[in-house]
Design a protein that fits this description.
12 helices, 5-stranded antiparallel beta sheet, 332 residues, two-stranded antiparallel sheet
């Protein structure tokens, strides 16, 4: 191996390679760029075949390979995630088949409507499978992220006041229907939905647990459902029919999804002078730039612009008259 791992990690990797392939070292190993989880992600070759290696060494109340590997195995058994060749939660080592990713925004073989349908079918298949282990109530998790964000002080309290007040109203009135608790990925961002030229694959199960089905549906809607017609197509494909309650629950959770990504992306931004407002490039602008290959998220300033864009999108959605109608339809 050309990478310098600590002895304990080298030993854990050797155990995994021996169990999976009967060797103690890969033919080659290359570090890949990962997301915000802190996991080490590598492309390895063994016997001339490429695999994906993931090293999950960090542990806390949320990062738990025992739970995430269990979710990953369930999804792989359902042919929604790459095949798992080896996964040991205690060592934090997982080896999966490697997906030769194609740019979904440029090479998808179909119309935007086809993509909405395929994404809805993929999520429906995940949710119809065996339940994932529980962790927390999803909105309790959002509350914890809000508290963490406020403690960081990246945005002044005045600039966050209306957004948090409107979120608190949502929080008090929205309740998950117990029938909607399913095997939920909870983080279907573009880095976790891979396209191989023929189909979609779901990866990175660190955030997965038993949660409200509308969490994943909102992720997909905010990525691919750009119009009310697309939103209805998503719901009709997933449920087989559309009704006002389903529209309302999706509308509410779409704003929670914007808030979630704004709060999570803030973890990739260092301490700085607090922003006095959420002004900046719009979320549509940033997504268009990312589609064209602009390295928006490669700098701290770019990541912070994305934080503000997501929070602005959440505030705009929470202010909308249709949101008030949706919350009234599903609120308690």
């Amino acid at each position: 191996m050309t990478l310098d791992f600590p002895p304990a990690v080298r030993a854990a990797l050797a155990r995994g390679l021996t169990a999976a392939f009967g060797v103690t070292e890969p033919d080659s190993i290359v570090a890949l760029g990962g997301g915000l989880s802190g996991a080490g992600v590598f492309r390895i070759r063994v016997g001339g075949i490429t695999y994906l290696l993931r090293l999950d060494q960090a542990r806390d109340g949320f990062r738990d390979p025992a739970r995430s590997y269990a979710c990953m195995r369930i999804a792989a058994a359902g042919l929604l995630a790459p095949r798992v060749r080896y996964a040991d939660a205690e060592d934090g080592v997982a080896i999966m088949d490697f997906i030769d990713e194609r740019p979904l925004s440029l090479e998808y073989r179909g119309t935007p409507e086809h993509l909405v349908v395929e994404a809805a079918q993929t999520v429906r298949a995940l949710h119809a499978g065996p339940p994932f282990p529980p962790l927390v109530d999803y909105l309790d998790g959002i509350d914890a992220l809000v508290a963490q964000f406020q403690a960081r002080g990246l945005v002044t309290p005045a600039a966050m006041a209306e957004l948090l007040e409107r979120y608190r109203d949502l929080r008090e009135r929205y309740r998950t229907d117990p029938a909607d608790l399913v095997a939920s990925h909870n983080d279907l961002n573009p880095r976790n939905i891979l396209y191989d030229g023929a189909r979609l694959w779901l990866i990175d199960w660190e955030s997965a647990f038993l949660a409200d089905r509308y969490v994943d549906l909102a992720c997909v809607a905010n990525l691919f459902a750009r119009t009310p017609a697309h939103e209805d197509l998503l719901l009709a494909t997933y449920f087989g029919a559309v009704d006002e309650t389903r529209r309302a629950r999706l509308q509410v959770m779409r704003q929670v999804n914007h808030l979630f990504y704004g709060l999570v992306m803030a973890n990739a931004v260092g301490d700085q002078q607090p922003a006095s407002d959420l002004a900046g490039r719009s979320l549509d602008e940033l997504h268009a730039a990312l589609t064209l290959g602009e390295p928006v998220l490669d700098s701290e300033a770019g990541r912070f612009s994305y934080v503000k864009a997501r929070l602005s999108a959440a505030l705009e959605g929470l202010r909308a008259p249709q949101f008030a109608e949706a919350l009234a339809a599903v609120g308690y």
